[in-house]
Design a protein that fits this description.
266 residues, antibiotic resistance, 10 helices, transport, 2 strands, mainly alpha
C-alpha cells in the first residue's frame, strides 16, 4: 500500500513501511500466554504442592497401606484412577480458581482483556495451560503407578483420555465461576476447602465404600462422577454412562453460569 501525500489516502497494493511491527497470530498469542501460565504455576510452590506433590504422596500412601478400604480388586488399580481425578481437580479447579481470582483482584485480567490477546484468548490460554499441566501430572502419576504395580485396562486408557478432558472442562468452568464472582480472599479459602471435600467425597476412596445415605448424594458431584468414570474405564475397560452424563451436566451448567456472571474487574 502507498500513501497519497496531498490527501493522506492509502492506495491499494503497496507494502507496509519497513520496520512495521505486525501483531502475532491468535494462535501464537494464546500459546505464549499459556506458556506463561504454566511457568507461573510451576514456580508457585503452594500450587505445585497441591497439583503434583500431594497426589503423589496420596498414591504412595494408598499403595503401601491397607486402610482405608478401597473395595474389591487390586488396591493399586483402584487407587490410581482416584488420584488422576484428584490431579484434574487440583489443576483445573483449585489452582485455576486461586490464580484467576488474584489476577482479577490485581487488574491483570482487565489489562490482558484489552490487549490483542482478548478475553476469549485469555480464557483459552488458561484451558490450554491446565491441560499442559495435567499431561505432566498424568505422566508422573502413571509412571509411579506402573512402578507400584498398576496394570490398567488397555481399552480403558482410550476411554479415560476424553473423560479427563471432559473433567477438565467441568472443573475449569467451575473455577472461573468461583473466581469471577467472589473476592480473591474468599476464593482462596473456598477453593482449598472444596479441594478437601472433593478428595473425601468419592475421589480417593471410592464412593461405594461410603455409607449408603452419603453415597447417593456424592454420586451427583462432578468429583465423584469423574473418579467413578475413570475407575470404570481403567479397571473394567468400560464406559460409565451415568458418570459421563453427570460430569457433562456440570460442565455445561458451570460454563453457562460463568459466561453470564464472570467479571473481569474486582
Amino acid at each position: 500500500m502507498s500513501t497519497d501525500a496531498s490527501t493522506g489516502s492509502v492506495a491499494r497494493g503497496a507494502r507496509p513501511a519497513s520496520g512495521t511491527v505486525r501483531a502475532a497470530s491468535a494462535v501464537r498469542r494464546v500459546r505464549s500466554q499459556a506458556g506463561f501460565e504454566v511457568g507461573t504455576l510451576l514456580r508457585n510452590g503452594e500450587q505445585l504442592l497441591v497439583s503434583v506433590v500431594l497426589p503423589v504422596i496420596a498414591l504412595v500412601g494408598l499403595a503401601l497401606t491397607t486402610a482405608p478400604s478401597l473395595g474389591d480388586g487390586r488396591r493399586i488399580d483402584l487407587a490410581v484412577p482416584g488420584i488422576l481425578a484428584l490431579c484434574v481437580i487440583s489443576s483445573a479447579f483449585t489452582s485455576q480458581a486461586i490464580s484467576t481470582a488474584f489476577d482479577r483482584r490485581y487488574a491483570v485480567l482487565r489489562y490482558l482483556g484489552v490487549t490483542p490477546l482478548g478475553r476469549s484468548g485469555l480464557l483459552t490460554a488458561k484451558v490450554v495451560a491446565t491441560l499442559a499441566v495435567e499431561v505432566v501430572q498424568v505422566v508422573v502419576v502413571g509412571a509411579l503407578g506402573l512402578a507400584l504395580g498398576w496394570r490398567p485396562s488397555v481399552v480403558g486408557l482410550v476411554v479415560a483420555v476424553p473423560l479427563l478432558v471432559l473433567g477438565t472442562w467441568a472443573f475449569v468452568a467451575l473455577a472461573l465461576l468461583l473466581a469471577g464472582t467472589v473476592r480473591a480472599e474468599a476464593v482462596l479459602a473456598a477453593a482449598n476447602l472444596l479441594w478437601v471435600l472433593f478428595l473425601l467425597a468419592g475421589v480417593v476412596v471410592p464412593r461405594t465404600q461410603l455409607p449408603d445415605a452419603v453415597s447417593g448424594v456424592v454420586a451427583a458431584l462432578p468429583s465423584s462422577a469423574l473418579a467413578d468414570g475413570l475407575r470404570s474405564a481403567l479397571v473394567d475397560g468400560v464406559v460409565n454412562p451415568v458418570a459421563v452424563l453427570v460430569v457433562l451436566a456440570w460442565a455445561a451448567l458451570a460454563s453457562v453460569l460463568a459466561a453470564r456472571w464472570f467479571r473481569f474487574d474486582d
